[in-house]
Amino acid sequence: MREKKFFITLILLIVITIGCIYLLSFIKEKINLSYAHIFMLSLTVLLLSFFILLLFRYLIILILSLLAHFRYKKELLKEENLKTVSIIMPVYNEEKILGVVINSLLNLNYPKDKYEIIIIDDGSKDNSYSIAYQFLKNEQGIKLKLLRQENQGKAKALNRGISESNGEIIVCIDSDCVVTKNSLIYGVRHFQDEKVGAVAGNVKIWNQDKLFVKLQALEYMEGLNFTRQALSFLNKVNIVPGAIGFFRREVLEKVGLYNGNIYAEDCDLTLRILKAGYKVIYEPKAVVYTEAPESINCLFKQRYRWTRGILQAAGKNNHLLYHSNASFSLILSYLLLIYEAFFWPAMNLIAHLFFTLLALLYGFIPFLFIWWLSLTLLDFSSACYAYVSDKKSENNAYNNKKIVFSHLPFLVLIYRLFYLLLIDTIKVFAFLEEILNLEMGWQRIKITGKLNGYIVKEKL
Amino acid sequence: MREIITILSAIVLGVTLITLIFSLVIYILFRLKINRKENLNNKKIKTEKEIEEEIFIRYQPKEDEKN
């Protein structure tokens, strides 16, 4: 099957190449231009069309996000209508932060008899197990199960936790994420609608004391959460983040649990839920605070894994495009996933290389500047909107060094000039490696655990 | 105005070039690290296999034992 696909792709590539050569010679005959000029001209047209596509993307996301904002319901459910919840948290070597995370789970604003916590120690080599053990008998009287297994990976640990749980709603969280008090009550209320299969939470960064981390916080706000909010209007959010995701138990039983063979197991599960015809929405007030990588090396590892994982998940679920349940919004959501993971980064990188070459070879410097300036302006406008709409969900207890509005212009400037170019390069290399099927590991990120000293006191 | 644009363009060009080269270097280092890890793992697996084979050979019953 794989060989067949490879040969079809090869034949298609040969046909396209022959077609392009024929077209080039035809243009050359009709218009008296050299091959170099034709190449430059076609690349300029290509980049221009991609820029227009990007403009459309920003516009669509902005409109959808605005619509989602107006449709957003603030009402919470009465206590008797709240569903039972099982919080599943796999743990692997998280001794530095685990105590804080479990404490945040024990103090959630949710009826104590309606939720349970299941911690799966996935063969930790540090004191994670003994730290979690201390919370088995907690003052709050919340049911806490602690399971231990040999290291089998996050997906298998999550699946074991789910199989041992009893709640109607399954909440999967990462063990380096501190959950805010009202997250559960806000996330669970959407399941009153029987068609809702999953809800994505809002992931924020708390260690924003370095410029490099602030740039990541801006990306979370302007890139990831902003897109999620827009797709939420269509009920087709394409990734329920592993950091905080709510799932209806029956849906998981229907579509299957996490797949351990894919590095973005959260994306794969979300695509399967969408394919089954369920709604997947985003709740901006279900907030978790996570620690972002503080070094370029760690960021590289993280994004490399994300990109390859998303490509694996998208490739595995590509039949979703011609599935009987495939609506226009579902196809749009799927295409946006691929566009963000590969097409746009590749195009941005090609544009930068092309304009740099133009500048170095022919001295056309302003082209690169215009390209950069127009993208920076687009980023700035969407960052302003995302900042204002995201501000309500901000919690000062976890984040006292958050982005200030007056810093936005400066941040966006560096964001586009340096940060995004770096991220796009990682994505392109990750894509190429995925195509070449090169070996990759999980690429674990180091956690500093500094959050222990950060928390002030969360308001009720 | 034209001079300002030229200066700004030159800055953008400089930063772009530096970032591109920097990203490439980081990627090469990253790949080398993964390859090194992979080689180490392969060696480890190979050694374990060799030990298993050695044990197997060592405990092969001799001809007279078989009888």
Could you explain how this protein is built, in words?
The complex is a heterodimer of chains A (460) and B (67). Chain A is an alpha/beta fold and 460 residues long. Chain A has 14 helices and 8 strands. Chain A has helices at 2-30, 35-71, 98-106, 128-133, 154-163, 183-188, 211-233, 249-255, 265-275, 296-316, 328-362, 365-390, 408-436, 451-454, and strands at residues 85-91, 115-122, 143-149, 169-173, 177-179, 196-205, 244-248, 279-290. The longest helix of chain A has 37 residues, at 35-71. Chain A is globular. The N and C termini of chain A lie far apart (56 Å). Mean pLDDT of chain A is 86; it is low at 453-460. Chain B has helices spanning 2-58, 63-66. Chain B is built from 2 helices and no strands. Chain B has 67 residues and is an all-alpha fold. Classes of the chains: A alpha/beta (460), B mainly alpha (67). At the A-B interface, helix 10, helix 11, helix 12 and helix 13 of A face helix 1 of B.
Number of DSSP E strands of chain B = 0
Write the H/E string of chain B, N to C. Answer: HH
The protein's oligomeric status is heterodimer
Note the beta-strand portion of chain B: under 5%
Q: List the uncertain runs of chain B.
A: none
Main beta sheet of chain B = none
Radius of gyration of chain A: 23 Å
Summarize the structure.
The complex is a heterodimer of chains A (460) and B (67). Chain A has helices at residues 2-30, 35-71, 98-106, 128-133, 154-163, 183-188, 211-233, 249-255, 265-275, 296-316, 328-362, 365-390, 408-436, 451-454; strands at 85-91, 115-122, 143-149, 169-173, 177-179, 196-205, 244-248, 279-290. Helix content of chain A is 55%, strand content 12%.
Q: How would you summarize the topology of this molecule?
A:
The complex is a heterodimer of chains A (460) and B (67).
Chain A: H1 2-30, H2 35-71, E1 85-91, H3 98-106, E2 115-122, H4 128-133, E3 143-149, H5 154-163, E4 169-173, E5 177-179, H6 183-188, E6 196-205, H7 211-233, E7 244-248, H8 249-255, H9 265-275, E8 279-290, H10 296-316, H11 328-362, H12 365-390, H13 408-436, H14 451-454
Parallel strand pairs in A: 1-2, 1-4, 2-3, 6-8
Antiparallel strand pairs in A: 4-7, 5-8, 6-7
Helix pairs in contact in A: 2-7, 2-11, 2-12, 7-12, 7-13, 9-10, 10-11, 10-13, 11-12, 11-13, 12-13
Chain B: H1 2-58, H2 63-66
